[in-house]
Each structure stands twice: as C-alpha cells, then as structure tokens.
Amino acid sequence: MSRPEHEHPYDPHLQRPTYLPPEPAPAQAAPPRPPRRRGRFAPLIALVILLPAWLGFLTWRAANQSYAQNSYTVGSVVPRGQPGEFAGATWRLTSIAPAPPPPAGSLTRRPPGGATLVRAYLEVTPHTAAAAKAIYGCSFAGRDDRDRFWDTENSTDTDDGVSDDCSAPGLGARYLPAGRAQKVAVTFLVPTDAARSVRPLVRPTDRAPYVLFE
Amino acid sequence: MSMRRALIAVICAALLVALVAANRLVPSYDRQTRPISTSGAIGERVRTTAFEIRADHVSVGHTLVEKDGLGEKPQRTNGLWVLVWADLTGVDEPVTLDTAYLRTTDGHRYDTSDRMGFGSLDDTGSEPGLTRHGAIGFEIPPNRLAGARLVVGPAGGENRLGAQADIDLGLTPALARRMVADAPPEVAYDGAEYR
Asked: Is-contact A184 A166, C-beta < 8 A?
C-alpha cells in the first residue's frame, strides 16, 4: 500500500521525528521567594536596641530631676498695700526698704561685701486673745523675684524698740495684746542684687502655709 | 525549618536569661532613693541642686581650740582633729549641712564631732548668694586620714533623693603620713564667716 503524496513521513501530525529535540517541558511557576531574614528580625533588633535606650533615658531623667521640696510653701499672696486676714489676725505690710548701716556700738554687724540688710515693717492686729496666742509662734522669711528664699537675720538690732516676732516687745515671752495694731520688724540679709525685689513671707502659725506680701 | 526553630528557641532562651538578669539589676528601694551625689575634688566648686561648696584645705591637730566671745575652749582628742575648710553657698534657700561625714578608703564613716561648737560650717550653713567660709570638724584615728573623702548634704537621715556632694580631699598616703607626723598640738577655730 502506497503512502499518499501529501502524507509526508515527517508530518508532525503523523509522527514525531525522532531526531528533533524534545519540546521543553512546560515552564513551572517559580516557588515564592522567602522573605529576607533581616526584615523578619528587624522589629526584634529594634526592640533590643530601643528598649534599653528608653529605659536608660528614663533612668537618666529620673537621676537628674530635682526632687527637692521647697521649704517655703506659699499659700496666699496679699497684694501691695492691702491687709490680709490670717489666723484670726489682720496683717499689713507697711514698708520694706534697705536698712541703713548699723550705728556704731550696735549689736548688728555690718553686712558683708555684696550683701544688704533689708528691713520690713508689718502691722499685726490679733482680734482675740486666742488669736494672739495662736500667732505667737509666727515666723518670717524673704523671697525675691528669682524665687530665692532667706531666713530672717537674728543678729540684728532694730534700735527702735519694735518687736521682731509675734510677741509683745520687751523682756519676757508675752502675747501681742488683742485688738491693737502692733508693729513687727523683720530683717533680711540678702545679696545686694536681691535687695529691691525681696518681699516678706509670713507664716502666721507653725502649721499654716506662708503668706507672701507683695 | 528545624534551623529556624532552633534559632527561635535560642533567642527565647536568651531573652529569658536577659529578663532574669534585668530583674536582678533592679536596685533596692534604698538605692533608688539615696541622695543624688555630685562628685568633686578639693579646690573645685561642687554645685548641687541645693548648695554649692568648695573645700579649699584640710588642717589637723591634736587639740581643737575654739575661740568665741567667751574665750578659748581647748578640746583634746585621742585621735586626730581634722578640720575641712570650705566655702558654702545656698542655691535657692538657706541650707545647713545636716549630713556631713568623712568616708575613709576602708569604708568607715566618721560623722562630725559633736564636741565642736555651733560655729562649724555645717551647723551655721549659708543662704542664697551669701557665701560663708568655715570648717567642718571631725575626730578620726590618724591612720584613717589617707584617702578620706568629705560627704555633705542638707538633710539628715531622710535625705532621700536630696542633694549631696562627695569631695576627694586629695589626701594621698604620703601627704596624710606627713600631715599626721607634723600635726601641731593645737588647731584653732573661731567660727564661720561671710566671705
């Protein structure tokens, strides 16, 4: 049986020629690329670095923070020229000014260089005997416009017979008389740069906050 | 896969160890709240949040002679009087040095001598902008002078997180030996004064 003319022995539809290279296998899909290791561990590395750094910063900040409590808690402020009512008494700042140099023979020593004595006069009127007793232990301090504080200067001699605390002037411990305005003089030794701005703080009783007289 | 698991296990173990170690590093309450100390050396100005101090020299002697308006008051010691002279200035408010001691190299602590009068610098204190110069007095065994440091602070036992200065007084062994050998019979003190 003869082969028809059009049937070529190499007709690919009929027979695959044995000498042709095999068809390439159908391309397979590439496997998904694993994520890079550095990317996976980055949050962990960041945590290991940032957490100690943050804790270190907090420790440093805590170590450098001032925990010192101010010893002079100001509870109220009395405007200049106004009286204040505290602990059953009326308080008024009548004057404050640098004190003149102490006279010869005074118990008061001359202020050291760069320092000035400042004297404040207050008028105190306890309304009752109980109030006079309550304010007997009053105390004073000075504060300047830079929030610096000074205690009163005890080694001074006002030379004017005015009490320097909330007791009646003269010898012996006596309460201020009730119902009468009494002068009290307090003196501060401050650096000269604070002499103009220092203002008296009054603590009417030993448990009360300070009152600032502007 | 198994490598990855092993790595994760190692990291977890390391973190666990780090956690335990970090827990052990947590300071005790006393350590957390102890005074905040500022270090310095003799001749340097040491500034803390509450005061500024500059120790300028150390003098020693066998008898302290305090001079005041009532006369002289000699006080002999079995050890050695050590006076640390310094300038003290308050920063924002009046300050007295309720904590003041010498710390020796072997860890001993010598508080100020209560036989020294109220004119000592630690008792007198200072106020803002007003520098006082005076001495802080100690009685110590002569063999503890070398390496001693001055530690001062404004509050006593409850000085939690308060200011403190820790000053190296520069007392090398050779200098301390010489000071002890040449210690005069008397060392005089007449109170703290404003600069």
From this structure: yes
